[in-house]
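Quick one: Pre-mRNA-splicing factor SYF1 from Trichechus manatus latirostris, structure tokens please.
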Amino acid sequence: MVVMARISRPERPDLVFEEEDLPYEEEIMRNPFSVKCWLRYIEFKQGAPKPRLNQLYERALKLLPCSYKLWYRYLKARRAQVKHRCVTDPAYEDVNNCHERAFVFMHKMPRLWLDYCQFLMDQGRVTHTRRTFDRALRALPITQHSRIWPLYLRFLRSHPLPETAVRGYRRFLKLWHELCDLISQNPDKVQSLNVDAIIRGGLTRFTDQLGKLWCSLADYYIRSGHFEKARDVYEEAIRTVMTVRDFTQVFDSYAQFEESMIAAKMETTSELGREEEDDVDLELRLARFEQLISRRPLLLNSVLLRQNPHHVHEWHKRVALHQGRPREIINTYTEAVQTVDPFKATGKPHTLWVAFAKFYEDNGQLDDARVILEKATKVNFKQVDDLASVWCECGELELRHENYDQALRLLRKATALPARRAEYFDGSEPVQNRVYKSLKVWSMLADLEESLGTFQSTKAVYDRILDLRIATPQIVINYAMFLEEHKYFEESFKAYERGISLFKWPNVSDIWSTYLTKFIARYGGRKLERARDLFEQALDGCPPKYAKTLYLLYAQLEEEWGLARHAMAVYERATRAVEPAQQYDMFNIYIKRAAEIYGVTHTRGIYQKAIEVLSDEHAREMCLRFADMECKLGEIDRARAIYSFCSQICDPRTTGAFWQTWKDFEVRHGNEDTIREMLRIRRSVQATYNTQVNFMASQMLKVSGSATGTVSDLAPGQSGMDDMKLLEQRAEQLAAEAERDQPPRAQSKILFVRSDASREELAELAQQANPEEIELGEDEDEDEMDLEPNEVRLEQQSVPAAVFGSLKDD
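--- reply ---
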């Protein structure tokens, strides 16, 4: 039977407990400040309702507020009570308040801070959590911050808020820097700490701050008076740092330390006056400092090689730093070829082997050089070109020492077919199975065979190159030239043919040019049909960029050995086949050759075709030349018709030279009517160009003084308007200005399209010159320009009476 009892106590008058609680209550009454008594009572009531258990914890903590055990258990129990509830439940706020009450007494306990921060992280309260972490760091001693930071950093990583994370990490690093500076500058006050372990722990965690941490550790030993230990730290640092920045920090600090040691020794010596005893020590320190300075390039090179041990160029620089010390050079080369992985190398790894062999060769150790190169040929390089370079270096080594037969044997060995053939770019196969297709090795072998071998061996090498389909156009040309030198002309032409079958345009351009030139030089007109077939084959599919040379060569063949009409047909084809930029030059050649062969009258059709095809600028030049030719032939009407046709593409404002030429022509060969017709055409053309918006825009930009401006520049402040409206407004403005600038016209009922000069004056001018030549003043041109294009000449004449008939009397 459970007996409920009520005990009247001063602090809790409503306290209710069960009969089983009486022994524990009595024990507490006897020992109210005993933690063990309270813990036994709490352990007994673990199965009680949560409010009853919490009430018991509160009674205990009221008497023992500084008990870590009670607070830890109580807070743990409170967190467990709300573990499966929604984070918006008010019970969470009660638990948070309970933690806050605990930190009034337990603010130096990192475990409670960690539990509270984790509890807040689970609630998702970012700002409250961050502030709690900051409070923990401020409340705890710096030696216990290492327990807070891991959870703090995990919190920063779990919430991607850039500004918060950056500030948190900056505070983290600042803490370590301040800690390192503090303990390194005050070694006598941190004897209870393991400073070496603390800073080395930072070295493993903060890899971007190694230089500063190493200097802090060395500074700690220097201030502690352990100078040799500090020197060991510096040496360890410069041999382990991975960046140039860290190396510079450590090396500068190391050099400053050595300088301060020398200065201190010199000062001590001068004060004590014991120079003889301390000279040796001072000399030792000076020698140590000089050695440190001289080692700097080598130490820096070591840093770079630690960053990338496969950097070929840095290994070569390291060898250069050991200049004059053969043993170190050999050791460096040996370490380099063993360290560098060809598949990870930066640079050409074969150069290390070649330089290693060259070092032995320069020192007269040819056998060692050959051994090095032989080992290099067995290295699995990444690129075939690396192995090919090694084989070529083997041959060059023997050539330098006049071992020509050995050089030939080596290169023949390099180009021999392997047991397992592979394609040149097949990366799955080792380079030793692909080097037989290396053009570099074959080219050197061909050169050696030409110089040292026989005709048959050289021909076999070239044939093998063509069979492997690794030849270049230059190799084909070299092969054909070699056969030609030995009087095998047809064989050389076959070599050209084989080369042509290997390549397409534009790579085959040089082969065709050389082939056709050599064929014409050899046979001339004796095999004309064969030569024509070759030219037609070459021109079939030839790009316009390379057509000009072949067509000119073809036309030259026809002129010298063939028919003139065939040559003209070739020139005509060339004008269509070449690039637009080359058409003008091609037409000039065509016209010149046609005039020399058939005469200038045969060029009329060529001129007409050129004017139709060429651009306006070139067509204008062609028209002027055409008209000049007709004028020389006495065909004045033809020339005038050409000028009239060309005028349609000649704006009077930009092509004044053309109109001046036409004017001079009319003055020499025309009359009053032809000059007026020319002026009429000029006004008509100018009116046509005035209506072209694009030209108007460019002219207006020039007038505004801004050649690189835009349409909106014509009307500043009106950028929102339509560009077309701006052009129209500007055109109207220019037209109004031109109207104002024109002189007033004489009022007359009859309009004449003629100058101010009378007919008598014109007749007098005509009498002074021959009938085909008259001189007109400049004023007439200006007056004629003032007339409108639609004005028509009107004259008054008397009407014969017979016209009116019977109407006359009326």
